[in-house]
Specification:
- About 30% of the residues lie in helices and about 20% in strands.
- Strands 16, 17, 18, 19, 20 and 21 form a six-stranded mixed sheet that branches.
- Helix 3 runs antiparallel to helix 8 and helix 6 packs across helix 7.
- The longest helix has 22 residues.
- It binds iron/sulfur cluster.
- It holds the Pfam family NIR_SIR.
- Keywords: 4Fe-4S, Heme, Iron, Iron-sulfur, Metal-binding, Oxidoreductase.
- This is Nitrite/sulfite reductase.
Length: about 500
């Protein structure tokens, strides 16, 4: 049994919340219980010896009020040195926290209905919810009520606090626009069959060092079955998943060994107690793996505006300004996307120009450019596993290349990570970079240089493929030059509207 498996048996992981006040009062964490803090969304940040923590906060249904965003901004300002990241699971992330801060942070979050329970750890993580829910004319169903029902019933539930590894769920509303189901443990993809709206269910997607795209269960379930089916699948994973080797513990390995048909049979016979209805495949997005960008019409005549952050990084001043803009031009709500961006919905057409001017002033304009389609993980700045810098390096690259390549007529997705763990999905991007190190050319012993392996033309849309890994690696200082060449070459050879994968 691995150390973490033994620890989970010793203390039910969500009980770590009960120990946080005493750790905070003492100003130190029992090192043996450190790993369980993940279940409260809390990790040690790099370098661990300094004792600072990072925290992830879930945003259930991916929607938050302006006042809630102000609370997030306040926490970042008071405790997190003004750093604030929007993650690729629609959450917020703080850095530079001390254990003594955590009780007050949790209390402040509680005042606005937010929490961190299950934001990390071997449990059901934040459920990715279509940011278009209730807005876009093309959506099949408003998935927000289902997402809300999943919170507590799946994510954060004691029934799933001890899974073999992390477990991720996505809920899409518009198959033509979203493709994130391919890389989640369960992807619920809404579509319509014979005039009835239901969900195609995909299982066993996951990236990490070995990428697996999800497989269809071959079912069509009603909206009211989604939570029940989700619980059945998570239960089957909890009881049948592998626990001996954490590198082989994700659901994707069980699906690979059993096949989706056998796994479906287990789910139906041992957990649901009834067979699910067979169903056809839902159509999938052409540009899976890229955000819905820019200004888009809502079905009620208003507009939703997806603003592009730079690799998810904002700050308290920008967050407060966004809250004010959502109140001035929208209905006082904002959303987070699964691509480190944010959205202001419910904007009148006559207000768009003014809103865009204000967003431009914040460097958060709704751009359908590289800024909107590029994501990067935490990297060496804070992540203990990282081998390379990520966000700052990519931000510099975007600054250099965004204008030059603003004439791209299709999304061009760049995903970069600081190690093979694929938190920002390097295998399913047009141009994916995975951070690594190699011996320095200086010849000095134990001196390493940062490099990135290249993964070309991955996609989780219609093309549905893991990017091809090229030989060799790009030195960090040549990343911008390399990216520039790839995009320039693409533009020189593509036909109008042709994507990189095509
Ligand atoms: Fe850290 Fe690696 Fe994940 Fe990036 S991909 S956040 S470096 S573990």
């Amino acid at each position: 049994m691995s150390d973490i498996e033994a620890l989970k048996k010793e203390l039910p992981p969500f009980e770590i919340f009960d120990l946080i006040p005493q750790y905070a009062a003492a100003g130190k964490i029992d090192p043996e219980k450190m790993d369980l803090l993940k279940w409260a969304g809390v990790y040690p940040q790099r370098p661990q010896e300094d004792g600072f923590l990072m925290m992830r906060v879930k945003v259930p249904t991916a929607e938050l009020s302006a006042d809630t965003l102000r609370v997030i901004a306040g926490i970042s300002e008071d405790y997190g040195r003004g750093l604030l990241d929007v993650t690729d699971r629609q959450a917020f992330q703080f850095h530079w926290l001390s254990i003594g801060n955590i009780p007050d942070i949790l209390a402040r979050l509680d005042t606005v209905g937010l929490h961190t329970r299950g934001a990390c750890g071997d449990t059901v993580r934040a459920v990715i919810t279509s940011p278009l829910a209730g807005l876009d004319a093309r959506e099949r169903i408003d998935v927000r009520p289902i997402a809300a029902a999943m919170e507590g019933s799946l994510s954060g539930s004691k029934d799933f606090e001890d899974l073999p590894r992390k477990f991720k769920i996505s809920l899409s509303a518009t198959p033509e626009l979203e493709g994130i189901h391919h890389i989640n443990d369960i992807g619920f993809l809404a579509h319509e069959v014979n005039g009835e709206v239901g969900f195609d269910v995909w299982v066993g997607g996951g990236l990490g060092a070995v990428a697996h795209l999800a497989k269809r269960l071959g079912v069509f379930i009603k909206p009211e079955q989604v939570v029940e089916v989700g619980r059945a699948i998570a239960g089957a994973y909890r009881d049948h998943g592998y626990r001996q080797n954490r590198k082989k513990a994700r659901l994707k390995y069980l699906i690979k060994d059993l096949g989706p048909e056998k796994f479906r049979e287990i789910v139906e016979t041992e957990y649901l107690g009834y067979p699910m209805q067979d169903g056809p495949a839902a159509p999938v997005a052409r540009f899976g793996g890229s955000d819905v960008l820019g200004i888009n019409p809502q079905r009620d005549g208003l507009n939703y505006v997806v603003l592009s952050t730079t690799v998810g990084r904002i700050n308290p001043a920008k967050a407060r300004a966004l809250a004010a803009l959502a109140e001035r031009y929208g209905e006082g709500v904002l959303r987070t996307t699964a691509f480190q961006n944010m959205m202001i919905p419910h904007v009148k057409t006559e207000d768009l120009d003014a809103l865009i001017d204000d967003l431009q002033a914040l460097d958060l304009a709704p751009r359908a450019t590289l800024r909107g389609t590029t994501i990067a993980c935490t990297g060496t700045q804070f992540c203990r596993l990282a081998l390379t810098e990520t966000k700052a390096r990519v931000a510099g690259m975007i600054d250099d290349l965004e204008v030059k390549h603003s004439d791209l007529d299709v999304p061009f997705v760049i995903n970069l990570t600081g190690c093979s763990n694929a938190c920002t999905r390097y295998q399913v991007a047009d141009l994916g970079f995975m951070g690594a190190q190699r011996a320095s050319k200086s010849g000095i012993e134990n001196e390493f240089e940062e490099v990135y392996t290249v993964h070309l033309a991955g996609s989780i849309g219609q093309a549905e493929r893991v990017g091809a890994k090229l030989k060799g690696a790009v030195p960090a200082e040549r990343l911008t030059e390399y990216t520039d060449k790839v995009i320039s070459d693409f533009k020189a050879h593509k036909s109008a509207g042709e994507s990189f994968v095509e």
